[in-house]
Amino acid sequence: MSTLLDIKSSVLRQVQVCPSFRRRTEEEPGSASTDPQEAATEAWKPGDGVEFFAQMRLILKKGEGRQGLPCPEVLLRSGSPAPAEPVDPSRGLRALTQEEVEMLYEEALYTVLHRAGTMGPDQVDDQEALLSYLQQVFSTSPEEHAEAVEHVKKAKAPTYALKVSVMRAKNLLAKDPNGFSDPYCMLGILPASGAPREQGSHKEQRFSFRKGSKRGGPLPAKCIQVTEVKSSTLNPVWNEHFLFEIEDVSTDQLHLDIWDHDDDVSLVEACRKLNEVIGLKGMSRYFKQIVKSARANGTAGPTEDHTDDFLGCLNIPVREVPVAGEDSWFKLEPRSSASRVQGDCQLVLKLITTQRDTGMSQRGRSGFLSYLLLLSRLLQFEHRAEEPNSSSWRGELSAPAATVLCLHGAQSNLSVLQLAVLHWQVSSRHHQTRTLDYAYLLGLLEDMQAHWEEAASLPQEQEESLADSFSAFSEFGLRLLRQLRDYFPATNSTAVYRLELLLKCLGKLQLFQPAFEICPFETELNMDIAAALKRGNREWYDRLLNTKSPREQPGPQRLVGLVALADTVYEDLQSCYGIYASLFHSIVKVDFFTLTFRQLERLVAEEAWVLTEELSPKMTLEVASGLFELYLTLADIQRFWSSIPGRDSRSLALAGIHAPFLPAVKLWLQVLRDQTKWRLQGAVDVDTLEPMDASSKHSSSAATASLCFSHTQELWARLAWPDPAQAQVLGTQLGQDLCEAALFYTQLLRKKVDAQPGATGEAVSEPLCVVLNNVELLRKAAGQALRGLAWPERAAGLEGVLPRPLLSCTQALDEDLQQEAHTVTAHLTSKMVGDIRKYVQHISLSPDSIQNDEAVAPLMKYLDEKLALLNASLVKENLSRVLEALWELLLQVILQALGANRDVSADFYGRFHFTLEALVSVFHAEGQGLPLESLRDGSYKRLAEELRLHRCSTRECIEQYYLDKLKQKSLEQNRFGRLSVRCHYEAAEQRLVVEVLHAADLLPLDANGLSDPFVIVELGPPHFFPLVRSQRTQVKSRTLHPVYDELFYFSVPAEACRRRGACVLFTVMDHDWLSTNDFAGEAALGLGSIGGVARPQVGGSARAGQPITLHLRRPRAQVRSALRMLEGRANKEAQEFVKRLKELEKCMEADP
């Protein structure tokens, strides 16, 4: 194996001009260096490189999560509860005094004790249960509660009123000839007896429905009131509101009539409406109207009321009106069984109180304020029953609480808009003292928005109160957004969802802004949000800087913290882009990512610039390592911005930040070079040259080397140095270092193998197989790593094409490692030479009496065993290498055996022919081994030809000699010159006519630089033409371009010219007067292609047309193989043929 150490590396030869590269190759790792930066590397403890590459793996692992843009699915890793938000009891509603609490308690009891109307299915109808609930809410003792209830019972009962909104009717009966009606409503309160009650001393009013009657004006409660008349419709829409006082809630009824209004018309006017009549029913109503008009114009008095038609009525007991009010369609009823009515009427009914004998009412506190205080008290009580730290409560009130609020809201005549406003005001304030679910608050805003569009504006006092609640909530929300990362961490899906709901709440507030006469916001809310986010970013960064890299620390210590700070900033920017950005942009139209990136990137860049300027004069290995890691993160931040479509990193504060980091990067790459060698040295030292496991065929050191190269490539990809010129220098040096490390590893393997004692009698060495596999794995890993070291060119080149320095380095290393693999392969197969020769000799010495397969069996058995072992020990590429080397070895050994045996029987050659084909089958292995094309090429052709010739007769060998000449092609067509001839066959005379025309560019074979050429023309093979003698041209003195124009005739039958191998041979000689003639070249022309031979020419003696240019050549090995076969023959014909050719060979000895 010592011969392996003599191999020179072509990579090392290529870079001999580079002193530092050569010095690194010759010196051991860690040797002294005169370079001042090299001296810095000695500060790193050599060790075995394990610690260095462990740190390098951490750097690479950090970069794995920075490939491409982040996905929300990757960032949202936790579904745990969101962090608790800050609460402040002082931000709730004003605390009530004891007197105010007592008045509120009285107000709640008064509401329950004087409830009126029908309770709903979800409401509590038990008065005692409601009172008991209020006792718990206000924390009163039984005695205090009983005393309060008794006090309320003694108070004056409230005055009730019924709010009636007549909205519309549908499908009324048509009473007019035109198929429509002119409906209006009359409504009032009926006592239990059924007659309308009078208001004081006023008598019941009777209304005239004639044209011009006054109706629909505002009338006192308990009087009959009338809506407007809606002309010509069966589906009238009134939307009119009335208020009726109620004296007895339990017995009073609401009565409503719908009439068709008919104006008094004359007979002439009735007749004029004939064109308005529609259908047969309309015709009947038309004649009825004429009769009425005639009666009215004749005998009827002027005040008689008989023209309006009844359309239907309603009777609704007041006690049946639901507590919460009712918005329903009621079916119209007839006055009697004879009446015919149809249709429905929509009414909105609500039972309220107008006078209340309570302390709050007496002091002028509105129902709006009373409800606000009561709702606040109930909300606090209900929320206390929940878990103390729960932030998911959605304001679900118990049935008693909901019933009390419903009663008070109805009795206080609060509209749905006012109720929605009150619930928002109380809940939003309560949220700031104890956290609620933002989905609940968002629902309150949506409910308020829906009713806001339908209802009129609020009173100014209530609108101001609502505006204050908006301002307080937005201030609270902005404070949370300033601490976004604390309360809504991007890794917590629950917190992110709460943030989304909070932003939606703030977005809803922004929608209310145009609806306020008194604007609650001084500026646009999204501008306030952006300002809060900026302030929060700065506060977060300052806290981070003070924690990780305080400015009062020394530079090296600050550097470590700044690396951690930059990593944290990068992770934060990932969260901003992947989680926060879409929420802020879609909900409140704030570009949070751009705002945050610009701000944090500028702050980090400023800190990095200052620190690099401070540390550059104090460059040590520790500082270089920290700066290198810091630069990788800063470069990742730049790439993150550039990876977003439409973003340009040239405008960033980090643009050009790479310049001050260049010295640190160079020093760190030098450390990488030395650490790689130490790592490889340590890996080889502990390597046992055994496969790592059953699934791999290389040893542990190869896996380590492959990993080192892979880490180097990944590190270069992360470095992505932006300056093309500097990147070329760095990349070229790194590529050379990588090549040097690869060759250094192969040297270590050689020494390792040489130091191991060889196993006697072991033809296939397992350590050699492992080494061969290691070299192949190294070749692939190093090649892939080198191809990954490409740098950005100044001019855009072809994609996938390596820069020239890197390409030459890659090719040279691959060539070296291929040579190394072939050398190990040769050493591996050399151990099998002795055995193979022994088995081939066994075949040659086998008697002719045994079968061929029996003679070949020992060799086949030997090969089966060794190839099975090789197949199990080698990877596919190395197995192919070994098979090719072993195949060539077998062919050479068989050729030697054939050369050592002369004058043997034909069976001898038959055995080796059988052996050759059997070996082809073994090495091809049905397509699993070497391809047939490579097996039957090169030495195989020579061996197969020799075996074939050995089995041929003398004349067949001579024929093969001429066939080889015809097949031979001149590899250098212009070296020996050209000869122009013209040939044809004259069938009538049975002769071959050969015309030698001229030659050109012949070799100068004389001392004067010229020649005296002549041409010998002969036919062959000789036994085809036994009576024909060779002929020659005249000698042309001192020329390299002789012109002959001589004709030669050969009397030969056409059948002989048609035989396979028949040819005319032209031999050009240089005539020498005092010595032997010199051979200049030869050319052969097959007779089968000459005109007149293949088919007789018309006219018999017509001469051939175009001349033929033949390129002169010298006999090749394939031609001489037939000659060697003939040399071994003892018969006279073979010896005479060989003798004549030997004489010609003597003339060739002077071949320049």
From TrEMBL:
Which residues does the UniProt record annotate as the domain C2? 141-300, 975-1101
Keywords (A to Z) from UniProt: Cytoplasm, Endosome, Exocytosis
CDD domains for this protein: C2A_Munc13-like (cd08676), C2B_Munc13-like (cd04009)
Which InterPro entries does the UniProt entry name for this protein? Answer: C2_dom, C2_domain_sf, MUN_dom, Munc13_1, Munc13_dom-2, UNC-13_domain
The record's subcellular locations are: Cytoplasm; Late endosome; Recycling endosome
**Pfam families in the record, alphabetically?**
C2, MUN
Annotated MHD2 domain residues: 853-961
Q: Which residues form the MHD1 domain?
A: 628-749
**Which Gene3D superfamilies does this entry report, sorted A to Z?**
1.10.357.50, C2 domain
Where is the stretch described as Disordered? 20-45
Q: What is its main location?
A: cytoplasm
Q: Which family does it belong to?
A: Belongs to the unc-13 family.
What's the name of the protein? BAI1-associated protein 3
Native organism is Ceratotherium simum simum
